[in-house]
Design brief:
about 200 residues; Rossmann fold; 6-stranded mixed sheet; 8 helices
């Protein structure tokens, strides 16, 4: 690729509100929100990559990192063809990728990371209560169990949080995840507004 997409990453533990904040950002001109959930929901299962994804899913296996990055690359390209995402105007707001160290290394070929929003809870117990409340509201009884919630948070700390170490610390901005959606969004925009204002249209490799 001769050009990389300019991007910001949304990062945070389960329940931090990445999806909510990504959707809010996506409604602001100049930002394009893309989550892995969007990607999987709109996958063409008749395509080569869609069939490959189905093969892993049918066996109950995780999709390998290289396949995930390939799927992501094709999905983003499709959004540009449809003119939903305009690389020369929009900052790509990634939610849910990269999730592993290997993905972090592979995706650098495709994106120029301008900033990383790390949603954090000063009091971890508040995150536990938020996840439990959400599970109860969605009638997911098993997911509301405290030991299940703590396990999810432990897995995040052990397997996903190390992804942050693959990027320049100066790119990482911690934002309080506890508060109303508007309050959290305000904290995010205080970081992203200057980045958006100084972003170049494209960045060569």
């Amino acid at each position: 690729m001769s050009e990389r997409y300019q991007a910001i990453l949304l990062f945070g533990a389960p329940g931090a509100g990445k999806g909510t904040q990504g959707l809010l950002l996506g409604n602001i001109p100049g930002f394009f929100h893309m989550s892995t959930g969007d990607m999987f929901r709109t996958l063409d299962h008749n395509s080569e990559i869609g069939q490959l994804f189905d093969q892993y899913s049918a066996r109950g296996e995780l999709v390998p990192d290289e396949v995930t990055i390939k799927m992501w690359s094709e999905y983003v390209h499709a959004q540009t063809v449809l003119s939903l995402y305009k690389p020369k105007q929009d900052l790509l707001c990634l939610d849910g990728i990269p999730r592993t160290v290997a993905q972090a290394h592979s995706i650098k070929e495709h994106i120029d990371v301008r900033g990383i929003i790390h949603l954090v809870a000063p009091n971890p117990e508040e995150m536990v209560m938020r996840l439990q409340r959400r599970a109860i509201e969605q009638k997911r009884v098993d997911d509301a169990k405290i030991d299940v919630i703590r396990n999810r948070l432990d897995i995040y700390e052990r397997e996903t949080r190390p992804v942050l170490d693959q990027f320049d610390p100066n790119l990482i901005h911690e934002v309080n995840a506890i508060g109303t959606p508007a309050e959290v969004l305000g904290g995010i925009l205080r970081v992203l507004a200057p980045i958006q204002a100084t972003a170049h249209t494209t960045v060569p490799n």
